[in-house]
Amino acid sequence: MATRIGLVPEHFSAPLVYGVENGFTNTLCIVGTGDMIKKLVAGELDIAICVTEGLVAGIGKNPDLRLFGTYVDSPLPWAASVATDAEYATLDDLAFGATFGISRPGSGSEVMARYAASAYEWTGKPKFNVLGDVHGLVKGIQEGAADAFLWERTTMQRHYDANEVRYLGTVRPPWPAFSFGATAQFIEANGDKITGLLGMFGNAQRQFMEDGVARAEFLKHKFGYGREEAERWAEYVRFNEQGSVDQDKIRKVIATLSKAGAMQELGADEVVLLPK
Fold first, then answer.
1. Residue 126 · residue 113 · CB < 8 Å
2. Closest to 13 (Cα-Cα) out of 48, 56, 61
3. Residue 68's domain spans which residues?
């Protein structure tokens, strides 16, 4: 039976989408991190590849879930975007209780706004308005429904080029961008399957990143990215071909998010469960 795998609808998923189109036999569900958490809990997904901070925060609210591997080692650069005519000049101008647009409660866009407020010691707590996907967020900023929102930097470039919103700065957390999550029951019952999948994921990542021409063409036709955007992304992204977990970095995520009020304090063993 094919494993049901959740992926974000962005270029970070490209190696696995490319792999499926070239013989990788699994069922992919492309949705945001918040939805993947819900689908894992409901038993509609077997494995989810989520934004790390969103997954860890989700585990804090759903104790049956666990993180079992790393998909992308490099940190995710979250770009802060504001209206083109906004008076904000730096990230710290958002420090006095700005309203952030978010895709949904518990999403990376919410978790990272909480992280920024805590890490940069902003005076006021951020407020939130649910505006949907990146297109809803852009529209919401244009219509004044929020002061700012956070989204992955490469994805936002086309919106900056079109002068739809303005780039304000980048929030870059000190931990891996994407991690694998599943229920503890699935991990405990499928150690060999998970180990095999991690090996296949690693091969797909390596093959995708080694062929620059094929990579650029795939990102263009499948995700709509220009060659310059694709090359900029390829320069900074580092996939984890072994799927290994740096537990010290996960402890940092937990400590940071609990301080920011995004989750309660947990031990690493309550978040991480490695397949056997």
1. yes
2. 48
3. 4-74+176-270
